[in-house]
Amino acid sequence: MMHSLHLKHPLASSVTLMALYPAYNLPPISTDLVSSTMLVTACLSQESKQSKVLVDALLPSIKHLLKKTPTIPPSKPIRHSEDREPFWLAQTLAKIEEALRKQGRDYKWLYEWRERSGHLAPAS
Question: In this structure, are residues 13 and 43 in contact, taking their beta carbons and an 8 Å threshold?
């Protein structure tokens, strides 16, 4: 649900969903790599003060989670019933890296993890 929500709906909808995680016994957003990257991606598409606050609050968690997360190779084409989280993670991390680079912020930590995971397109 978060995947569709963060791409197609206002940021407030994603934030509301994340606030409901504990009610459904889901892990806190700061400990869930896929969910936190989706929320940061949604925030980076906004130009608001609130979205910048959320990005600044979640980036350290993402950085920490990536340090303890083994590399995740890019997934092959996904069929409808297969686990899509590795694919979503690859997409959102690429978007976050691009946004951080455009903003002149540190993205080396993210680039290095994506490089080790094989998420970067080969140079042509």
Answer: no
Residue 12, pLDDT above cutoff 50: yes
The 10s digit of each residue's pLDDT in 44-53 is 888 789 889 9
DSSP code, position 21: G
Neighbours of 19 (CB within 10 A): 10
C-alpha to C-alpha distance for 33 and 50, rounded to whole angstroms: 21
Identify the three-state secondary structure at position 39: helix
Distances (CA, A) of 111 to 8, 11, 47, 105, 123: 26, 25, 24, 12, 14
pTM of the model: 0.80
Q: The tokens 């806190």 sit on which residue?
A: 28
Element (H, E) at 113: helix 108-117
Q: Which residues contact 69 (CB under 8 A, 6 or more apart)?
A: 33
DSSP-derived letter for residue 104 is T
